[in-house]
């Protein structure tokens, strides 16, 4: 899989982030089953609980268009270090992906690392646990 397309879309989305409180921009891009890429940015709110992360923005856009299977996700936050998804985002990713999907943590198109969802969310509680 070519990760640079996903990273580029995440970088583009990062520039659209609405972050008047933290000034911490994050962009994410997900690849769905038919090859479509959905991107999202973080969107802050004066009522901090109403803030939405970039990863969830991208996922919710895809789900609202009828996709329920993530094949990969790229995340770009602080371009001087790798930004991991928060706990809530990790849980939401696990709702729509299996533990083997690539989670691409990027500073830019040339500097990135690849983990799996199982690496960043070991022992995830998933819908499979509800069906036991």
Automatic annotation (TrEMBL):
- Which keywords label this protein? Hydrolase, Metal-binding, Zinc
Q: Which cofactor does it need?
A: Zn(2+)
The record's listing under CDD domains reads: cytidine_deaminase (cd01283)
Function text: This enzyme scavenges exogenous and endogenous cytidine and 2'-deoxycytidine for UMP synthesis.
What is stated as this protein's family in its record?
Belongs to the cytidine and deoxycytidylate deaminase family.
In short, the EC number is 3.5.4.5
Gene Ontology MF term list: cytidine deaminase activity
Q: What is one Pfam family matched by this protein?
A: dCMP_cyt_deam_1
**InterPro entries associated with the record:** APOBEC/CMP_deaminase_Zn-bd, CMP_dCMP_dom, Cyt/Deoxycyt_deaminase, Cyt_deam_tetra, Cytidine_deaminase-like
Swiss-Prot/TrEMBL catalytic activity: cytidine + H2O + H(+) = uridine + NH4(+); 2'-deoxycytidine + H2O + H(+) = 2'-deoxyuridine + NH4(+)
Record protein name field: Cytidine deaminase
CMP/dCMP-type deaminase domain residues are 1-128
